TrEMBL record:
Keyword Signal on entry: yes
Organism: Bordetella bronchialis
A Pfam family matched in the record: TctC
PANTHER family, per database record: BLR1237 PROTEIN (PTHR42928:SF5), TRICARBOXYLATE-BINDING PROTEIN (PTHR42928)
Name this polypeptide is given: 4,5-dihydroxyphthalate dehydrogenase
Protein origin, superkingdom: Bacteria
Signal peptide boundaries: 1-23
Presence of keyword Repeat: no
Phylogenetic placement of the source organism: Bacteria, Pseudomonadati, Pseudomonadota, Betaproteobacteria, Burkholderiales
Similarity section: Belongs to the UPF0065 (bug) family.
Keywords from the named record: Signal
Length: 326
């Protein structure tokens, strides 16, 4: 009996050592085939652009292809299901903006995924600050001027957004809340409609990405008043941050990579490291700069903290403005 116990103990020890050796071997060989980046939007949007730029750089670094697959629809549910139904082997990731992790959980009651339960943060890849802008026809000359006018007549000033529940919408409602005033919402179907409406003075102000505004600003048609990032953007350092008058205000759009729960830690760490290397590459920085994107490349822990912080801010804005999904 004693001998059998010794044999079982020895077998268990050998099994443990074998498992450790196998894990080490797997980690050292990773990746050995194609890595997939799933994007919950159609090609051409911010997350898709970030995913493709980073995929190209990571492919060159690893010597293994990183491919981007677009799975739009159902508020990210299709992409989430694609990720969760994939093998938990470290070869499939979700590259998305803050909507799936921070906005949807506060806006929709019956999501088929739970950000905390189903996903593991890998890296905060980049941020894209939005800029508060107005037509020069409005006569608004600065952020301070905008604030004075908005406070003087609550509800009189209106703004365009890219749709109900969008980051543009929630940022403006958070701004109105911080200024203790009201702004009238005019939703459009994307920035492709809201920005021209602002340029034509059909709405007073909008939040939009810098590339959508810079051409109009150069022609003297638009005045850029402020950024919604937590500090002045490196993309436009002369433009003030709203946080300068409302400390803690930060609603820059985030784009990050996530894995499904259960993916090996070594795979998460490896991809996080590769993303950090990618966004430090001068060619990537230059490409991002032209697209109005700021590289970050944070660790899994840093991205987890960023998601929590972002979720709290969006949830507060949604509740305060009583925003409901359409």
């Amino acid at each position: 009996m004693l001998r059998r116990a010794h044999l079982l103990a020895a077998a268990a020890t050998l099994g443990l050592l074998s498992g450790i050796a196998h894990a080490a071997e797997t980690a050292s060989q990773f990746p050995s085939h194609v890595i997939r980046f799933i994007v919950p939007y159609a090609a051409g949007g911010l997350p898709d652009t970030v995913a493709r730029v980073v995929a190209q750089r990571v492919t060159a670094s690893l010597g293994q292809s990183v491919v981007v697959e677009n799975k739009p629809g159902a508020n990210g549910v299709i992409a989430a299901q694609a990720l969760m139904s994939s093998p938990r082997d470290g070869y499939t990731y979700l590259v998305t903006d803050g909507s799936m992790m921070s906005i949807n959980p506060a806006l929709y009651k019956d999501l088929s995924y739970d950000p905390k339960r189903d996903f593991v943060p890998v890296s905060l890849i980049a941020t894209s600050p939005l800029f508060l802008a107005t037509s020069t026809q409005t006569g608004i000359t600065s952020l301070q001027d905008f604030v004075q006018r908005a406070r003087a007549a609550p509800g009189k000033m209106n703004y365009g957004s890219s749709g109900v529940g969008s980051s543009h919408h929630l940022t403006m409602e958070a701004l109105a809340l911080g200024l203790h005033t009201k702004l009238t919402h005019v939703p459009f179907r994307g920035s492709g409609q809201s920005v021209p409406a602002m340029v034509g003075n059909q709405v007073d102000v909008v939040f939009a990405a810098l590339p959508s505004l810079s051409g109009f600003a150069e022609k003297g048609q638009v005045r850029i008043l402020a950024t919604n990032a937590g500090k002045r953007s490196t993309l436009a350092p002369d433009i003030p941050a709203i946080a300068e008058i409302l400390p803690g205000f930060n609603f820059a759009v985030t784009v990050g990579a996530l894995a499904a729960t259960g993916v090996p830690d070594y795979a998460v760490r490896k991809l996080s490291t590769e993303i950090a290397k990618a966004v430090q590459d001068p060619a990537v920085i230059k490409q991002f700069d032209t697209l109005g994107i700021e590289p970050v490349g944070g660790s899994p822990k840093e991205y987890a903290l960023a998601i929590d912080d972002e979720a709290r801010r969006y949830e507060s804005a949604i509740k305060a403005a009583n925003i409901r999904a359409e």
